[in-house]
Every structure is written in C-alpha cells, then in structure tokens.
Amino acid sequence: MTTPTRAARSLACLLLLAQAPIPPLLAQEARVQAAPAPAGSPIVAPTIGQADPWLYRGSDIPRDPEWHFGELANGLKYAVRKNGVPPGQVSIRIRVDAGSLYETDKERGYAHLLEHMLFRQSKYLPEGTAIAAFQRLGATFGSDTNAVTSTTQTVFKLDLPNATAATLDETFKLMSGMVTAPTLSASNLKADLPIVLAEMRERGGAAKRVQDAMQQTLYSGLLLADREPIGTQESLTAATPQSVRAFYSRWYRPDNVAVIVAGDADPAMLEGYVKKWFSDWSAKGQKPAAPDFGDPVAPPDADLKNPVGQTRVLVEPDLPPSLMYAVLRPWQQVTDNIAYNQGLMTDALGQAIINRRLESKARAGGSFLSASVNQDDVARSADATFVSVTPLGDDWQAALRDVRAVIADALTRAPSQAEIDREIAEMEVAFQVPVEQQRILPGSKIADDLVNALDIRETVAAPQDVLRIFQESKPLFTPEAVLEHTRKLFTGTVTRALFTVQKPGVATDEALRRALAEPVEADASVRQVPAPVSFEKLPAIGAPQKPVETASTGLLEIEQLTFANGVKAMLWPVAEEPGRVMVKARFGGGYRSIDPKDAAYITLGNYALVGSGLATLGQDDLDRISTGRKMGFNFEVQDASFEFSAETRPQDLADQLYLFAAKLDLPRWDPQPIARAKAAAAIQYATFSTSPQGVLSRDLQYYQRGKDPRFATPTPDQLEATTPEGFKRVWGKALKEGPVEVQIFGDFDKASAIAALERTFGALKSRQPAPVTAAAARINTLPPSDQPIHLIHHGDADQAAAVVSWPTGGGTMGIPESRQLEILTQLFTNRLMNAVREKLGVSYAPYVYSTWPVDLAAGGSITAMAQLDPKSVPIFFQTADDIAQDLIANPPSMDELALVTEPLRQQVTRAASSTAFFMSQLEGATTDPSRIGTVRSVLTDYTVTTPQAMQALAARYLGRDHSWRLEVMPEAKEKPGTR
C-alpha cells in the first residue's frame, strides 16, 4: 500500500488543502461553466470490468473499490475514478515507465529533454501553441499543466477545471497527441535545448555540487551515481532529432504507459476517453527490458559487522556543516501484501522512536543542532537507512558519536511499551484523518498517489482499509518486534558517508571513515518517557465569559461574536468539510509594531516563540500533550498583525483554542529554544550567498520595503547580540498588545465552539492598545532608478538574477484594483515567458507577481524577475521595459486577455470551494468590516475587465520612470563599492 504506510514521516502530510462543494456565492457561476456541450461526446464504454484489476495481481491488499482498472489491447493500462473535489475538476496523469536511469551514457538528459519537446509540438498542437491551448481550457501553465521527470518515470499532469464533455474530449485529444505522436523535429530541438540548458544552469551551484557528491558517493557502482534527470551539457548539446527519437521509440510505447484519471465525471465516461484516444497507439517489436540499475557492494576488505565503504569530505564555504551516512542494501521487488505493510509499520515505529530521542538530545543542547534517521527505497536502486546530522561547533566527531550512541542504544535494548504506545497513537491519528476527511480528498492528490504507487511497484488502499489493517496489527508491535526491525534497518551491505564542511582541514575522508567504523557506547539517557500531560490539569485562562454580542456578517452563514474583553470571533460551521476545522488567531501589530532596532527578534520569533512554551508546558510537554491528537501551532508575522493557525478536528478544537489563548495570556520563556533558534539562523545565513535565488530570498523583501531593517535577514553578528531577556521583552509586549480576532471555519458544533471560546479567548484579560511609533509605522519605498542595485553571490560564474519592481499601493479600498493587477501581471508573465524563455532561451522560468498589503496604506509592488546568465541581465531589463511600455501604449487583444482571465476564473472558482479561501479573504474583517463586501466581488474582480482597463493600469503603475531594479551577479563580477 502506498502513501500512509510507507513511513511515519509522511503520515501527517497525507492531505493537501482539501476543498468542499462550491458555496452558494459562486454556485451559479460554476453551474453555467459546467454546462455540458453536446459536441465532441466520447465513446461511452460498457460497464468497466473489475474482476482482475492489474494493480492488485498477486497481492492480498484490499482493492480500493473507487478505482476502476482496465487494459487496452495494445498493452496500455489505465485507472479511473470519480472524485468531486474540487467540483468540476478532472485530474489526468499519463505515466511513462522510464526516467533518467533508462538512458545510456550518451543519452543522459534525454528523458527530461523529451518532456519539454512533447509540449513543443505534436499531432494536434502546432509548434509553440501548447501553453495557450491549455490556458484556453482554463488550465494554468506550471500548476494545472506540468510534467515531471525523475530517475524512474516521466509523468505528464493536467488538472482540468470546469470539465465538460467537450473540454474533456479536447484535453484527452491534445495530451494523447503529445505522448503518442510528438513531432521531435530539428526546430523543436533547437527551441527546447536552450531552455533545458537554462534550467540546468539555474539548478547549479553549491546545492547541486552537494547533490552530485552525495549521488556519486552513496550510490557508487550504481547507475544512480551519474544519472541525474537534468543530464549533462555534453550529452544534451550532442543530441539530434534522430537520437532523441530513438530514446522515445524505445520507451514511449503503450505497454509502458499508464493513464490515471480522477475527477468529477462518470468513470465509464473517463474510460471512454482513454479508449477513444489511446486505442490506436501501437509500438513496433518487443518491449525492451529495463536496465540493470546495479546493487550497492561493500569493499573487499570491509568489516563484515560494520562494512564502511566510500566516505567523502566536501568543502563548501557557504553551506552549513552537514553529515549524512547511509546503510545500504540492494533494492528488491517485493510482494505488496498485508504482511509486508505490517513490516513497514513496525519499521516506522522504530524510526519514530529514535527520531524522538534524537530530538530530545538536541533540545537539551550539546554537540548537534539536529539529527534524524529515515529509511527509503531509492529509485528502485537501493534500500537505504539514512542518518543526517547537523553538528554544532567544530567537534563533528562528538556530534557523530553522540548520534550513533543514541542509535546504538536502540539496537541494544528494546524500547519500552510506553514509547511504542506513544508512536502508535501518533500513527493512528494520521490514519484516522484520511478516513474522516475522505470526502474532501482532492482528485489531484488521489491521482498522484496512484502514480507514485506504480513508480515504487506497490498498490493503494482505501483509507478505511489502511486504518483497519493498522488497528488489527497492533498486537504485532511488541518491544521485541520493534527491536528486531530496528536492527535490520541498520544492517546492510555497506555504509557510506558524505560530510560537507566549510573549510579545508576540518576532516578528511579517512578520518570520516574511521569515525564511522569505531565502536560507540550506547546512550540511554533519552530513553525515559515522562508522565502524560493532561489538559485538565493546566491552569485556567481566567473566568469564562459569554459573548456580549452575536451578529450575522451577512455573508453565507458566517457569524461574528464579540466578547467584553474586545476579542472578536468569526464562526462558520460547514458540514461539507467532514473531520476538518481550520483555526486562526490574529493579534497584535505585526511588523509595524516592532521597533526597528529589535528587528533580529522577528526572525527568532519565527523559530522559537511557540517552542518557548506556555503555562506549565515546555516544548517537550507540548509534544506530549498533543499525542494522538490532530493539533498544530503555526506562527506567522504579517504586516500589521501576528497570527497563530492550525488545522484540527472537531474533537480537538477546544484544546487547540486553549493552546492559542494560553500563549497570549500565560506565555513561558524557556531559554533553550531561543539558543537553538539563534544557532539555526546563524548557520543558515551563509547559505543565502550560494546562489542568486538565495540572495533574493535574503534581501529582496528588504529592498522592496525601502530598506526597512525589520524586513532584513539578520546577520550572525546581529543574532549573537540578542539575548533571552531581549526576546522576552520584545515578544512579551507583542503577545499582550493589540486586538484579537479568532476564526473557526469547518466541521464543528457551534454551541461547543462558543463554549470553548468562552473558556479561552473570552476569558483573556482586556487587551492593551498596540501603540505604533511614527518611525515604526513609516512605509518606505525605494526611489525610481535605472541603475540596478548590485548584489553578489558566491555560486557558479554563469548564474545571475535580475529584478524590476514597480511600487503600487495598499489598503482595503484598493482590494478590487489589486485583483485587477493580478490580471495585468499574468499578461506580463505570458509575454515575458514568451520573450525570455521561448524566443531567447536565456531563462527557464521568468515570472511577474503583484503584492498588495491590505493592512497598510502602501507598500505593494509589481515585480518581474528571472534567473539567467550574467551577460543576459541587460537583455532582461530591456525586455521587461519593452513589455511594460507596450502594455502602456497598446491595449491587449481580447484573445490575449482571455488566456489569463479564464485560468484565473477557474482558480478562483476552485479556491472558493474551500472555507480556507474565505478565511484568508476575511482576515481582519472584525476590525475592518468593509472586507466582507469585497468577498462578494472576488470573481468579477479577477476575471471581468477590458483591454482599455489593463492599459490604464499599466499606464498608472508601469511607467519607465516609476521602477527600480536589482541584479545579483557572481562574485567574480563584483563592481567597486558594493556592500
């Protein structure tokens, strides 16, 4: 079974943001969109046979009855199912069972190159028209329409919104033509090769060097060691139409392809489209056998008890010290049955116990910042157990020894039943959530899960069957069984390691090998399981208080409650989102309330505010108190507020509200999370210099906000100057000041939720005002300039980035205009993509985006950016200027406008099928009720416009003398006088 039982680490991430049926606000629009067209009806198949579904042959895993399986006479396999989330969408996946490991030495990069060329031109798509064709169908390029090439598969993906008989037929036609009859001409190759090389360049730098070193070291002797999907410049530039077609003909054949479809349509209808558009596809000759990927092998002189093989030390001055070693075993095809999955569950328990012990060791302070273990089957090439360590300080041997000592203890003695029970409770809630939320699982996620199952040669099971198998397997999870499985996880053919250091001389390959080979004494110091923590024993927030006012917002069924202490809450019970409750608590004054001299504490707050504890609970206590519960504690600093958020369940809502309220009223200030946050932030800082994108992540917001120090990334020196006392001073003030707004949207009982609010947020002390000084409230912008701000990076000499930014505005009154600006930026992006990527081939993914701070009167911007080679930076600036000037001088055509408004219409319609969309739109509405009215116009604001309106917006904001620009160049090209 794939997904939930693969490993514990992925259990909590099982669901994407799910979406429920479209609420009344947009339902009429959606119904009009979804009206089926009589033309282009598919060939409707008879009832789909399910007697012997191909995915489950040889397995005793219960078949998921929602999936309907079939095979065509030409060998193509398919699986289809009905799924109404989001309404009207159909997710199509075409999986080719071939990736970069299927290439010869001379073909390296061909699988990925083909992925690009199939979008270039094919039987039903003239050259260069694919993006526009799918946009006309409402699909956004890059998100709704995409493809992925890995080492073992190539997957073409399309999420078709507003699927009708006509649009489904057209989509299957276009996608079938791409896969079965691509053109693959010399002109196609000439157009796509620069784009692929640009993508290769943008993925280069320090991170790529580490990735390459890891592949070559850990997987030495396997194809995986030198078969990255991006390929090599030598092999790609030597490609010819004939050589590319030879790879295509070898692997793109119906008996090597699966079509997976999940969406809001009758499965028989979906099967009909597969048959109509793929039945005529044929292949010549026998299907070739997959290459032998190789097996990990120990060196001849290795110690049989601890076979340490290749080790390597890599010097990367701008990356944090990072050590990874792997215990490798040959990958073997397994029978995906219940017994196998019970073994995976036991493996997951063993890993979870070790990881919790390692985290406890790191939290206590010592030789390493973080460490973890993780088993994975890598690219059908190796069964590996990875150990990752981030040392603190220069004594890496102590860090490695301490981590290995914790693992050695797990291999020496069985865990306690209490430890096992704690991890069982965590796993069980992760299995329960998909059952509770099965009705709101998105079709795109369900389709992707099946694709991933095919890739790892496993099956899928319905959530209720996964939960049942887990619950029936609990008697197997004994201390002795977990010990046995843990020992197997750390027994292998060979152990290999890579250690990334910042300066030469810190370590050598041989020293690393000896450190891994030397015995360690088991460390049992983090074995103990403290007593459970109960919410019932926590201190009360205060005396419960009933709301003094309850009123309808006039939007849908959303109500607003007001408490005597000033807290306001918005509630929207929605039965269509079973098992899911979204909670947000907005408070305080955000960035603008922090004194600029305290800017470094903003970063530390993001790392450590939650971990510093609340009431009687430290960080470990917070973990224990939520065992077996679905609770969260996300924290975000916004322009004019701070925000806690979480996704929880109806039965956990009251306690989730307590955690948020107690953090405001009963904060705790444990120093260790703050010290760990300082270390983590300081270690990360140097990594920003390794690439143009890293520099932009570090500095762009700082310049967009007019060099406001609160938006700067603090340097190690600034972090070092912070103290626990300063942290308490800054964040203690932030927690107790300013209004509080609570949002509860989703599946909950309103009366119970109100009672929980009365005991938590209603019981808070009256809030103090959040005074904002004139200096703190000032909104800075950079003056217009043709001379770019010049920043440098330490990465590859062929990497650069360019940014052009036009200031716009902010505030609630401008929300409709901000949505129209989104249309303008999409027009700009299409033109920039066509000019810089498709025609010039100097950048892989240029884009334009708009920001509009609703809580501030100004500070927004339109920003165009691209990663490219240094010599092309002036070309980008000139191209961006030319596009801006043309948008000012000439209105777009109606057809060009439709290419962006239709995808936006579908994005908004789909998003509005989730309560999360309305939560985001209504943030701050309890203090600014005008935001409620802007929700009613959201669809028209994003989709209804005219060419003249776009021209007027461009003239208002995109003037040549209105922008500033920034370039990030390699260090060798640094100009005199740069900062």
UniProtKB/TrEMBL annotation:
Domain Peptidase M16 N-terminal: from-to ranges: 89-220
Signal peptide: 1-27
GO terms of molecular function: peptidase activity
Origin: domain of life: Bacteria
Keywords: Hydrolase, Metalloprotease, Protease, Signal, Zinc
Keyword Hydrolase: yes
Peptidase M16 C-terminal domain: residues covered: 239-425, 741-898
The keyword Zinc appears for this protein: yes
One of the protein's GO biological processes: proteolysis
Family statement: Belongs to the peptidase M16 family.
Protein name, UniProt field: Zinc protease
Source organism phylogeny: Bacteria, Pseudomonadati, Pseudomonadota, Alphaproteobacteria, Sphingomonadales
